[in-house]
Design goal:
Length: 407
């Protein structure tokens, strides 16, 4: 009995640890140190190429943001206005008659649902009513914006996302709203719709974060606002709330202490390696809605870089990372594979190193240019540019079998 209690306690302790950014950096650093020793199974490290990568990121950043002191956070808000259409300002203007908390609820709901629908889209395209056509993450942002404002995620068809509306959301609705056809396929459409249904179940059954009388997804934003101390809220507290409140939505993967671990993967050599990419992307994306509600976000550097195919692709395409087996480029890899786990872990550490190199080239401090702004300036954009230079269509350097909830 004593042994079982101790085992359960250790499992609970490790579960809590794996839900933190120090765990992400520590486990990723273990993989990185193996790469430095040349003992990784799938990747070699060429750190000499980092200066050129930083220069590429600086050039892309200056082109997008000539005033490098005014780079915004890497968040979902950036994508809503693609094509020069002021969708976000229209949405925020429509909220002005509401209270501060209700404005925060609505902007939180738009942000979370859009982020959860944002993963690799393949060759998919979205055509807006005015004739503009968009793809990739920006296309998904525009499509999810129109899905949300249409009332499809609300039980009363209003522009909100409540528990009842989310629970009823079907893949056919997503495919219709996102213009999915055999000639315009969307990777993981069923998985994305299932994620929103599961989200509705969690919102309706988690009164710690969501109002028990009429639960709305946006209640999480208000909960975070009320958690601020003297108006200050650490970025890690945003991630912690996202992981604890929304953790049960993720599909069945690794579990520990009877709870799903989320974006945590088991490597035969390095054990459980956490990333929480989508949860951190969501946390970054919630910073602006929270700041608009009067919250000051502190300790931004606690969040890590996002280990996805644009950031990871930048390092692979630019030669910082090299495949041990070049034939791996032609193979399709599961997100749970050793190769993908190593790639993502190396990306986390390399993004921290890249941020330091970019700051050095720009003459800015960590406070002036936190990682959240390096990413936006930035690393993912440079990853997209180099991918377009190397491959028709600008796809990722590796083929990943994704269910639409990781990449």
């Amino acid at each position: 009995m004593v042994d079982s209690v101790e085992t359960a306690a250790r499992a609970a302790f490790e579960y809590d640890y794996l839900q933190t950014t120090p765990a992400i950096r520590a486990r990723a650093s273990t993989v990185f140190e193996a790469a430095k020793r040349g003992t990784l199974a799938h990747f070699r490290l060429n750190e000499a190429a980092m200066a050129d990568v930083a220069a590429r990121v600086v050039a892309v950043t200056r082109a997008q943001y000539p005033d490098v002191n005014a780079i915004p956070y890497h968040g979902r808000y950036r994508h809503f206005d693609v094509g020069g259409v002021p969708r976000l300002s229209r949405f925020l203007a429509s909220l002005q008659p509401l209270s501060v908390d209700d404005r925060l609820r609505a902007s939180t709901e738009l942000t979370i649902t859009s982020v959860l629908l944002d993963a690799g889209a393949g060759a998919w395209r979205y055509r807006e009513a005015d004739g503009g056509t968009f793809s990739r993450s920006e296309g998904l942002a525009v499509a999810s914006y129109h899905l949300f404002t249409s009332g499809a995620l609300a039980s009363d068809r209003s522009a909100m996302a409540d528990a009842a509306g989310l629970r009823q959301f079907e893949a056919a609705q997503l495919e219709g709203a996102f213009q999915v056809t055999p000639k315009n396929p969307l990777i993981g459409a069923a998985g994305r719709a299932g994620l929103l249904r599961k989200l509705g179940e969690v919102v309706g059954s988690t009164p710690n974060y969501f109002d028990s009388a009429q639960p709305r997804l946006g209640d999480l934003g208000v909960w975070l606002k009320r958690s601020a101390v003297d108006g200050n809220l650490p970025a890690s507290a945003v991630l912690d709330a996202v992981l604890r409140a929304l953790g049960p939505i993720w599909p069945g993967r690794e579990q520990l202490a009877g709870k799903p671990l989320g974006d945590v993967w088991r490597h035969p050599r390095f054990g459980l390696v956490p990333f929480h990419k989508l949860s951190q992307w969501l946390s970054y994306s919630l910073l602006e809605p929270l700041e608009a509600a009067g919250v000051t976000i502190t300790e931004l550097e606690d969040l890590t870089g996002l280990p996805e195919y644009r950031n990871g692709g930048l390092f692979l395409d630019a030669g910082v990372l090299e495949l041990v087996d070049p034939a791996a480029r032609e193979q399709t890899h599961a997100v749970s594979s050793e190769l993908v786990i190593e790639w993502r872990a190396l990306t986390v550490v390399l993004l921290d190193h890249l941020a330091d190199a970019v700051r050095a080239q720009l003459g800015l401090s960590r406070e002036q240019l936190p990682l959240a702004r390096v990413l936006e300036g930035g690393s993912w954009r440079a990853g997209r540019v180099i991918a377009a230079e190397l491959r028709p269509g600008g796809g990722p350097p590796l083929k990943i079998d994704s269910d639409g909830t990781v990449f």
